[in-house]
Amino acid sequence: MAIAHEFSYERPQNLHAVLELKDSYRNRALIYAGGTDLVVNIKEGMVKPELLIDIKDLPELHKLCLDNGTLYIGAAVTFTDLIDTEFVFQACPMLHDACKTVASTGVRSRATLVGNICSAVPSLDSATPLLCYEAVVHCASVEGTRNIPISEWFLAPRKTAIKDREVVTGISLKIPKEKSTSVYLKLGRYGGEDLAQAGWGIWLNNAYQYRIAHCALAPIPSRAAVIEAMLNGKELTPQLIEAAVALIPQEINPISDIRSSKEYRLHVSGVMLKRGLLAAIDRMEGRVVEPAKLLGGIT
Amino acid sequence: MKEICITVNNEKRYVSVEPNEVLLDVLREKLGVKSPKCGCERGDCGACTVLLDGNAVRSCLVLAIEVEGHSIITVEGISADKLSTLQEAFIQFNSFQCGYCAPGIILAVTELLEKHPHPTLEEIKESIAGNLCRCTGYTPIFDAIMALTKVDQHTTDAEKALSQDRNPALQ
Q1: What distance in Å separates residue A108's CA from the closest CA in chain B?
Q2: Is the predicted ipTM greater than 0.90, yes or no?
Q3: 10 Å Cβ neighbour count for A231?
Q4: Could you report the per-residue pLDDT of A17-31, keeping only the tens digit for each?
Q5: Measured distance CA(B72)–CA(A268) in Å, rounded
Q6: Class of domain A180-290
């Protein structure tokens, strides 16, 4: 299928030129990085941009670094970059887990984390680590920069807090100073490329503080504040895990779709939360955890 | 229309493209490179896989205009002189039937073996999780690749080792 829609293409050499273009075209210009969502959306007529702005020539957008406890991920950093970078796993295991579950190798070598959160679909795997590590989304426009907390980023399915004239330049995650760890569990219908039927991310530290986030279980990826409040300060016991699982219906609002029914999502979330909490403890105590194997099934 | 220069299979090619032309169509229709196949056209099936600067990508989702100055390798490129050891292994283990998925799988695995010469079965499965095959059930594909993981693929010994490791069902 050739693309029927016609558009122009620009490949600016500096950020200022990107922002100028975005400022004059507003929502008629879209940012092109990996293209794995955008090109599909153009093919299917879901978006009809007049201009695509390719940002891959800007070195600052390829920046991926860990500095003073802040993990910075530029807008052109791909999932493969994140998976292959050792300090990403050390600093933020949940992000590494989540990146590995996105689509397939051929897609991950192009798709970017920033593009993923700009697409903002409900089943967004990478949203759970960003929510648990309280990421900040850095936006820029000709008027200056704006930092948006990830908790205020997702507004509705496929809708984010970005404005027409703004461009996301990167994301930063605060890596806690105290000993902490995290894990992401994704359930798909089969191993390999599938969108999540359910996704749960769990972070905990040595003082038994918990941060829990989910995706594919509500209109937008969200933190599970009620469960966190109940768990905080308490050492995990089988009874405590059961109590956390019992709160799930208060936290999520799943729908039935092609991937699974609402009832199944409610049920399997309990299984995932329980195994996820135990896996996080395992990781905290130095044991190797392979999230893909925690939910059984064919890999 | 803009004229761009792409290195396709180690040869510089000049071609005029519109911004809305995807790499897959340009390779097949304008440059006559027919091994990348058109399957789902939305990045799910992997039939259009090519190596862009050494990395497996979905050519149905890459705009041709952006690969100006970059290098594309397809199956034609990895078998210019003779079949690669991976391709030989595919023949020996009967790893394709209709053949539609084969170019994509061969390129995805070529990238894998380049980066990890001795992958585990799990790493192999992960590397081709996005390449759908509806004929073989994947087992003969894994067998062929697993046979190669035991040897150094870049020596002629690989061919020798492969012939010793022939699939018993084919003998």
Answers
A1: 8
A2: yes
A3: 24
A4: 999 999 999 999 999
A5: 43
A6: alpha beta
